[in-house]
Amino acid sequence: MAMTHLKRANAFWAEMSACEHFVQIYESEEVFMDILASFVSEALKEDYTAVVIATPVHRQELNKRLTESGHDLAALRLQDQLICLDAEEMTGKFMANGRADDELFFQLVADILARATKDGRKARAFGEMVTVLWAQGFYGAAVRLEHLWHRLCTENSFPLFCAYPKIGFAENGSEAVAHICAAHSKILAA
């Protein structure tokens, strides 16, 4: 990771409140993965549970980076301090006819949070379920899901990091970005 990205990310994590919901709209996969790895690594160093709901490619790259930075992934998973889930699979558990079922979503996340905090640990979460919906053309459902996530992280006091590739905003780009950014409490520079 470039030292500049690391310093900025660590400063950002230090200033993050317990119920922060922030987004990054990124152009570079490398920079995005630097930020994600920093977010998860800092959570683990602070004895938080890191919940990662991501695509297979991003989970694989994150695992590589965490291993390279000295984290014992097998031990972390065994202790439920690192919970990695598939974004598309999780999305399928609460979506019906292009719409999110609020109750199914809340129950899904409540179960994940109960698992993450069962030993009294605090949790931090990263999610790409909204990105999956956006990529599938379910723009309204993605924005709605951002609002549901915002409600949950406020009610349960956990920081939530979301990310979207900038390329996904080709049509009505500035308007779409404005809708996504409005659903978050902070925007992380790409």
The radius of gyration computed from the alpha-carbon positions, rounded to a whole number of angstroms, is: 16 Å
The CATH architecture category equals: 3-Layer(aba) Sandwich
CATH topology category name: Rossmann fold
Q: Low-confidence runs (pLDDT<50, min 5 residues)?
A: none
End-to-end Cα distance? 14 Å
Supply the number of structural domains: 1
- Major β-sheet profile: 6 strands, parallel
Shape call: globular
Order of helices and strands: HEHEHHEHEEHEHHEHE
Q: Mean of residue pLDDT?
A: 84
* Strand line-up across the major sheet: 3-2-6-7-1-8
Describe the structure.
There is one protein chain. This protein has a single domain (about 25-190), classed as Rossmann fold (3-Layer(aba) Sandwich). The longest helix is centred in the last third of the chain and has 18 residues, at about 140-155. By secondary structure, the protein is an alpha/beta fold. β4 (about 95) and β5 (about 100) form a beta hairpin. The protein has helices at about 5-15, 30-45, 55-70, 75-80, 85-90, 100-115, 130-135, 140-155, 175-180; strands at about 20-25, 50-55, 80-85, 95, 100, 125, 160-165, 185-190. It has a 6-stranded parallel beta sheet with strand order 3-2-6-7-1-8, sandwiched between helices. The relative contact order is 0.21. Helix content is about 55%, strand content about 20%. The two termini are about 15 Å apart.
